[in-house]
Design a protein that fits this description.
Elements: E1 2-7, E2 9-10, H1 16-28, E3 35-37, H2 49-55, H3 62-74, E4 78-86, E5 99-106, E6 112-117, H4 128-131, E7 140-143, E8 146-150, H5 159-167, E9 172-176, H6 184-198, E10 201-205, E11 208-211, E12 214-215, E13 221-223, E14 229-232, E15 238-243, H7 247-255
């Protein structure tokens, strides 16, 4: 199975429309890949908080349309990264016009296969944490070669989410991100940890460039179920392509069946 992680650069001098066209072109260049992945909030930049409301789109907005067409043109499964989604009223959102950090996955025919609203919002008491609603649902995607489990950026710090995805059948954990350069060591460490503890592949696609003055880590990474780094990008814009065998997940879990020894439902300590 071949995956291409498009580590696109977010340049504040480039319009969103221009970057959308450029991303679509990069996706089309990956024809022949089994999976193509874009980063988190690559239209606005993950730290461009002031742009979230102004540039938010309905789910089936301009980015959806451009990426659906690019997936169909290239004939690839496309994780199109995430967009600032403005939800309509009456869809289970917390209120009319609620913003979400929403990932979109398209089939090779350009059909929407899944949408994932980011569960863990970054920022503590500011930024994404207060501007966007929290997703509630774990999302997996049945790919012809494997099952994908979806997370986004800050989700990487919360192992419970990935355990839930593995329990739902995920073998390849796909994570778009806008991860800052100053915490790049955490990015690599956590990607490997999620792979080891879940005995799954991790495909983590970051951005290059600078988001609202915040330099991005880049260094998109592919990790195997033993925690070995299969491929890693540099800091700048590039396409990281990696070949891997999804069957290694089952083989690893059989060879070292640690997941079978999980003890669930432990009571809290007594005093």
């Amino acid at each position: 199975m071949r995956a291409s992680l498009i580590q696109i650069a977010v340049d504040e001098g480039e319009s969103i429309a221009s970057r959308r066209r450029r991303a679509a072109s990069l996706v089309r260049e990956q024809a022949g890949a089994d999976l193509v992945v874009l980063p988190e909030l690559w239209t606005t930049g993950a730290f461009a908080y002031e742009d979230f409301g102004r540039e938010a789109e309905p789910l089936q907005g301009p980015t959806y349309e451009a990426m659906a067409k690019a997936a169909a043109d290239a004939g690839v499964w496309l994780h199109a990264g995430s967009i600032p989604e403005r939800a309509p009223s009456g869809d289970g959102a917390t209120g009319e016009g609620t913003l979400y950090n929403t990932s979109l996955v398209f089939s090779p025919s350009g059909e929407l296969a899944a949408a994932y609203r980011k569960i863990h919002r970054f920022g503590f008491d500011k930024g994404e944490a207060v501007l966007m609603g929290a997703g509630r649902d774990l999302v997996t995607v049945r790919h012809p070669r494997t099952t994908l489990g979806l997370g986004t950026c800050y989700d990487l710090r919360f192992p419970e989410l990935f355990r839930g995805l593995v329990d739902a059948g995920a073998e390849v954990l796909v994570l778009p991100a806008g991860w800052p350069e100053r915490r790049r060591a955490h990015w690599t460490l956590l990607a490997q940890a999620r792979a080891v503890e879940n005995q799954a592949f991790v495909l983590a696609c970051g951005t290059a460039g600078t988001h609202a003055g915040v330099p991005q880590a880049g260094h998109s990474i592919a990790v195997d179920p033993w925690g070995e780094v299969l491929a890693e990008a540099g800091p700048g814009e590039e396409v990281l392509t990696v070949d891997f065998d999804p069957a290694r997940v089952a083989a690893t879990r059989e060879q070292f069946p640690a997941l079978k020894d999980r003890v669930l439902g432990l009571a809290p300590p007594t005093r």
